[in-house]
């Protein structure tokens, strides 16, 4: 039985990518890192995607997570925004799969529900509950956008062993079996 697990949580985005890393030892969670990657300063979408891929690989290589959890894009009215967000999520997934790290996706509502008990909670409510759950004296509020990435990691821990994830991939074969429409 594994005594320690490291989970990388990612909230992909093309303006800001939030991420949080936790360790779990004997059921007790501890925050390792929380940060955000500011992408709005880069000139084009392709450059942002490369930076997301490179940053995800760098996080994996530095922290050696056992699992990666991602926030799935929510469905919005702006098709272009959805496409860009889906690409950002896709490159983070590809980086994880490139390093053979299993990935799980969670919807924003499922994450908020797991953390606060309210699927419509605000960022501030999520951050406050994360502070309590992780025993932090103060929450690094300058990383409020990054709290979503940390929330994904904590949600994943809470759901480990349960079949409640929206999608779960253990490698490229698993990804392709669950997404046959993407082979076309």
Write up this protein.
With 184 residues, the protein is α/β, with parallel strands linked by helices. It has one domain (4-177): 2-Layer Sandwich (Nucleotidyltransferase, domain 5), CATH 3.30.420. It contains six helices and six strands, in the order E-E-E-H-E-H-E-H-H-H-E-H. It has helices at residues 45-63, 79-98, 108-116, 123-133, 147-159, 172-178; strands spanning 4-11, 16-25, 28-38, 67-71, 103-106, 167-169. A six-stranded mixed beta sheet has the order 3-2-1-4-5-6, sandwiched between helices. A hairpin with a 2-residue loop joins strand 2 and strand 3. Helix 3 crosses helix 5 and helix 4 crosses helix 5 (147-159). 36% of the residues are buried.
In terms of topology, how is this protein built?
Layout: E1 4-11, E2 16-25, E3 28-38, H1 45-63, E4 67-71, H2 79-98, E5 103-106, H3 108-116, H4 123-133, H5 147-159, E6 167-169, H6 172-178
Parallel strand pairs: 1-4, 4-5
Antiparallel strand pairs: 1-2, 2-3, 5-6
Helix pairs in contact: 1-2, 3-5, 4-5
């Amino acid at each position: 039985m594994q005594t320690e697990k490291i989970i990388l949580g990612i909230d992909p985005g093309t303006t800001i990518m939030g991420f949080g890393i936790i360790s779990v030892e004997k059921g007790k969670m501890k925050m390792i890192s929380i940060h955000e990657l500011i992408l709005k300063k880069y000139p084009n979408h392709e450059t942002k995607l490369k930076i997301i891929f490179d940053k995800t690989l760098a996080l994996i290589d530095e922290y050696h997570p056992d699992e990666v959890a991602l926030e799935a894009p929510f469905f919005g009215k702006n098709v272009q925004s959805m496409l860009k967000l889906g690409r950002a999520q896709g490159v983070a997934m590809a980086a994880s799969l490139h390093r053979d790290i299993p990935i799980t996706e969670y919807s924003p509502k499922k994450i908020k529900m797991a953390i606060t008990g309210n699927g419509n909670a605000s960022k501030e409510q999520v951050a406050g509950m994360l502070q309590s759950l992780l025993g932090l004296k103060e929450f690094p509020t300058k990383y409020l956008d990054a709290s979503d990435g940390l929330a994904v990691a904590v949600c994943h821990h809470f759901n480990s062993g349960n079949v409640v994830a929206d999608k779960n991939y253990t490698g490229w074969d698993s990804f392709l079996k669950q997404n046959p429409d993407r082979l076309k």
